[in-house]
């Protein structure tokens, strides 16, 4: 497990990206880096937009799953919204949903705030992204 405290500043996003990239490389999971770096950026950006307090990002590998969790002190819960072509922001949770296998949130127990989490399965049968098309010969 890697826990990274992040100051509520613009540098938090680049630090989160760097931490995810370095951690995945150390775990031998570079193949997940693009998606997980993007999602971590979105989660930390959302936390920065909704709170001025401390933020913590946690990366964990459990069995066949890799998780990113971001905690902040805002009591506002994440609500996905439908974006329109004219929106200049508000696509963060749509990206989180599109680029992770699962996501959600939970309140921080007796402390103010919440954890927003997302996960990626390491099992090839559980991924929602199709990596290889089925050859035509095998499909018929």
Automatic annotation (TrEMBL):
One of its GO terms (molecular function) is protein serine/threonine kinase activity. Residues 7-120 form the Histidine kinase/HSP90-like ATPase domain. The keyword ATP-binding applies. CDD domains: HATPase_RsbW-like (cd16936). Gene3D superfamilies: Histidine kinase-like ATPase, C-terminal domain. Transmembrane segments: none annotated. InterPro entries: Anti-sigma-factor_SerPK, HATPase_C_sf, HATPase_dom. Keywords: ATP-binding, Kinase, Nucleotide-binding, Serine/threonine-protein kinase, Transferase. PANTHER family: ANTI-SIGMA-F FACTOR RSBW, ANTI-SIGMA-F FACTOR RSBW-RELATED. This is ATP-binding protein. It comes from Streptomyces sp. SID12501.
């Amino acid at each position: 497990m890697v826990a990274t405290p992040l100051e509520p500043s613009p540098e938090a996003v680049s630090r989160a990206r760097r931490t995810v990239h370095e951690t995945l490389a150390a775990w031998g999971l570079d193949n997940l880096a693009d998606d997980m770096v993007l999602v971590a950026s979105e989660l930390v950006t959302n936390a920065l937009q909704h709170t001025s307090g401390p933020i913590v990002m946690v990366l964990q590998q459990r069995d066949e799953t890799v998780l990113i969790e971001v905690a902040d002190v805002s009591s506002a819960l994440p609500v996905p919204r439908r974006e329109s072509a004219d929106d200049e922001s508000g696509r963060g949770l749509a990206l989180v949903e599109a680029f992770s296998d699962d996501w959600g949130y939970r309140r921080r127990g007796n402390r103010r705030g919440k954890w927003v989490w997302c996960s990626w399965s390491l099992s090839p049968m559980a991924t929602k992204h199709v990596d290889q098309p089925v050859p035509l010969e095998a499909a018929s």
